[in-house]
Amino acid sequence: MADWKRGLRRILYPAYEARVVRRLPSDRLPKHIGVMLDGNRRWARAVGADTAHGHRAGAANIEPLLEWSEEVGIEVVTLWLLSTDNLNRAAAELEPLLNIIVEAVDSLADQQRWRLHPVGALDLLPAETSERLKAAAERTSQVDGLLVNIAVGYGGRREIADAVRSLLAEHAERGTSLDELAQSVSVEDIGAHLYTRGQPDPDLVIRTSGEQRLGGFLLWQSARSEFYFCEALWPDFRRVDFLRALRAYAARERRHGT
Fold this sequence. Notes:
Elements: H1 2-23, E1 32-36, H2 40-46, H3 51-60, H4 62-71, E2 76-83, H5 91-111, E3 115-119, H6 127-139, E4 147-154, H7 156-174, H8 178-184, H9 187-191, E5 204-207, E6 226-229, H10 239-251
Parallel strand pairs: 1-2, 1-5, 2-4, 3-4, 5-6
Helix pairs in contact: 1-10, 2-3, 3-5, 5-6
């Protein structure tokens, strides 16, 4: 029966997905989406595999997501692959995970289809990991395609702290006094020092695995974002799940954080 159902899905889902795509209003789709790729470890446990197998399965689902995003005209995708909290994991799990991440990023860069931009506290990462992420960004800097933020060693509070430090350092070089800065600093000034400076804020944030919390993802930028929480674990996240998230977004009345 299970095989019969899977076969039926393979027949019916393409037609269903095509219908959803046709009905998506092009003027109500997000330009920037943030995706929290959550559930790799639980997926691995569910299939009786080790954690690294789950992370590899999750990495393999990144390219399809980018292709689905291109298909509907999304301009920026931010992928949260590793938080600053994750850096405290045991070396036996963290080292293979970092290797899987940089291999996935290298593979994306090799295709020369997407412009990659690492975001996060790269100084907290092992030097080799940081250098490979920067090299991938350099290799794709001239690509005229979807902008993909690779959030590795990323934490929203850390990003805001880094932005404030950068702002203070900039004004110290100018000779601005603290009193003058305190009187003049604005939301826009801090925004200009974020990892994603110069980019539009995310319209939609998607989190997989059924968890309904942000965990600090794009903490500053998501103040006016819409959120979509999906039950599927990240390696099981399908095109139909993605399209349903877009459909839900398009049906909402944007209140811009109010």
